[in-house]
């Protein structure tokens, strides 16, 4: 699976370099949607937006199964479990020090797709609000 994942990543990067494959959104698009708090936008609604996409129509049947297994593993280990740990750490700090103020900063990847840090905190009963860029806290 590791060799398959590396080969697919290299093929994807070669296609990007050759211009035969394009990412459907730019870095500017990501920044704009993140700044506006529009994380439910179409560009953010894929669980695998943070990891390479190995599943494509050119794969053979057995390769497609391998790609789906890797995609599932990445989604679970690199996204869901990571966000769960981070969200629970925030919750623990808030509960351990209820009289303190905190400022938590996360990269945009922690707010994309499903099972985000925000989702974890909301499940734990917290109200989370977006603070737009330039707004005083």
Automatic annotation (TrEMBL):
GO terms for biological process: negative regulation of Wnt signaling pathway; proteolysis; Wnt signaling pathway. Its main location: membrane. InterPro entries: TIKI1/2-like, TraB/PrgY/GumN_fam. Coiled coil: none annotated. Its EC number is 3.4.-.-. It holds the Pfam family TraB_PrgY_gumN. It is found in: Cell membrane; Membrane. Its cofactor is Co(2+); Mn(2+). GO terms for cellular component: plasma membrane. Keywords: Cell membrane, Glycoprotein, Hydrolase, Membrane, Metal-binding, Metalloprotease, Protease, Signal, Transmembrane, Transmembrane helix, Wnt signaling pathway. It is a single-pass type I membrane protein. Divalent metal cations. Mn(2+) or Co(2+). The keyword Cell membrane applies. GO terms for molecular function: metal ion binding; metalloendopeptidase activity. Metalloprotease that acts as a negative regulator of the Wnt signaling pathway by mediating the cleavage of the N-terminal residues of a subset of Wnt proteins. Following cleavage, Wnt proteins become oxidized and form large disulfide-bond oligomers, leading to their inactivation. Belongs to the TIKI family. This is Metalloprotease TIKI. It comes from Piaya cayana (Common squirrel cuckoo). The gene is Trabd2b_0.
């Amino acid at each position: 699976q590791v060799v398959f994942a590396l080969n697919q990543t290299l093929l994807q990067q070669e296609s990007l370099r050759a211009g035969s494959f394009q990412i459907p959104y730019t870095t500017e698009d990501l920044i704009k949607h993140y700044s506006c708090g529009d994380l439910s936008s179409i560009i953010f609604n894929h669980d695998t937006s943070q990891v390479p996409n190995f599943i494509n129509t050119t794969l053979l049947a057995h390769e497609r199964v391998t790609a789906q297994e890797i995609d599932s593993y990445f989604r679970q280990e690199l996204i869901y479990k990571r966000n769960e740990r981070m969200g629970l750490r925030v919750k623990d700090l808030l509960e351990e020090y209820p009289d303190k103020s905190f400022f938590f900063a996360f990269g945009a990847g922690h707010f994309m797709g499903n099972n985000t840090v925000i989702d974890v905190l909301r499940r734990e009963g917290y109200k989370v609000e977006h603070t737009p860029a330039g707004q005083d806290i």
